[in-house]
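Re-run with default settings, no changes from the original entry. Doing this only to confirm the output is reproducible before filing.
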Amino acid sequence: MNINRNAFLMALGSAMIPWGFASAQESLSLPRPLTKVGRISDSEENLTNSTVVAQRPVLAVDQRPEAFRRNSMSLTADKSSEVTAPAEFEANVPPPSFQSVGFATIADHSLETASEPFHPIPETAPMPLPGEASTVSGNGCLAEVCNSDDLCSANQLGGRFFPGNPSGLGWVETDALLWWGPRSSTPELVLGGPRGSLPNALLLGGVDSLGGDMTPGLRTDFGLWLDDCQSVGVGGRAFGLFSGPTDYRFASSGETLALSYFNSSTGLYDLYLLAFDTLGQGVDTGSVEVTSDTDFISADAYGKFLLAKNGSARADLLGGYTFARFDDSLGIHTRSVNGITDTVPDGTVRETADAFALQNTFHGGLIGFTTEVKGGRFALATLGKVAIGSMQQAGQISGRTVVTAPGSSPVVTSGGVYAQSSNSGTLDRDVVSFLPEAGVKLRYCFNPSLSFNVGYTFLCLPDVVMAGSLIDTDIDVAGIGSGSPVRPAPRFENSSYYLHGIDLGLSLQF
């Protein structure tokens, strides 16, 4: 049989390598590795004859602390493969466990002294899974109630871990509001046409004729948690929209300009002429300005109660009080300079002013829900609530006319065009109403305390009175002349109004 000499020498050398490592390990007095680990048998017979079988040696250095090494049993100097259990085991002491750390580790109770008690090698504490509540809360709460992995704070943010509860118990959130409302409707008001002819075009009024522009505003939400678990809190919110008046102005130096109305004395549609060219008998010039103004303010005082929470989401119940006020006003100002040859002196100025103002004030209780779901540096929050209560509607109608003839003092009389003695004064009533609101907001967390928000809000006011709905275009011209008109009559019609738009702001937790 032919034997390859080189192969034989390589095999022999390979067989000698473990022996060399074993010899080196013995000379360094390092403990021998085990082939397996586990508890020593509970039977007394096995305790006295437990055998540790050496496995393939591992070239490593025991870097455990000195106290751990003193509590570890090294093999005896004669390198016997047999290990005898300490005498303490005979006193029914529960047998220790082997710890798999790469070397034979058997607890030696004989090393325990009064000055140096026995300290077993601690096992690694199990790490909680993501979303689990810690068994020991860092803020004094019960583990099953309070989760230390707080939203957008004690969480993985961009690969960094923020421990504890740095978000604190208070919050302040401020948003700039860019909201829109619907266009409101009025009766057909301003008519126009070419010079020398009757009006043939509607310049202002009708369905969806006023408003609809973007309205800026500001909203602030603030509050405080009453317990470390952030399960009960109190807060407040206030916001407002302040648009400023919107003017619609029409002027004429001869083109036809008029206000439209229905003459209840004759049963025909008629015109209140402001500018007209008679094409030979003079020209009246004039202008009309319609001013619309809408404002909205609201405030909430609420309690916040935790419904459910885990490491990535929470849901809260809201309950409290809501105040809201929606103001709408409409003013109609006309000016006409007489230039037509008639009984009125040329140059006489006639000015009218009609004012229609509404206040819709709401008081009621609110109930709603908020949710928040986080993921890394982002969090998505939602709000849904409804307030149920009383809507107090109060309207004010007034008008006046000022006539100034050349060289004479102004003559002021009550009543304008659409505001006469038959409908002027105060109107008020209370109705049961509700205010639903919904919103969604995306947060980006710069750090555990500060985040940037962008969101959308929808708010509905289903029972309000708009200023345009107060206008009655039926006018008793004959009654005005006699001082006792029957029309225009007071009008008080409910309508719906909504607000919606974009929210941009910052949130601070402290």
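The mean pLDDT is 77. The longest helix spans residues 5-27.
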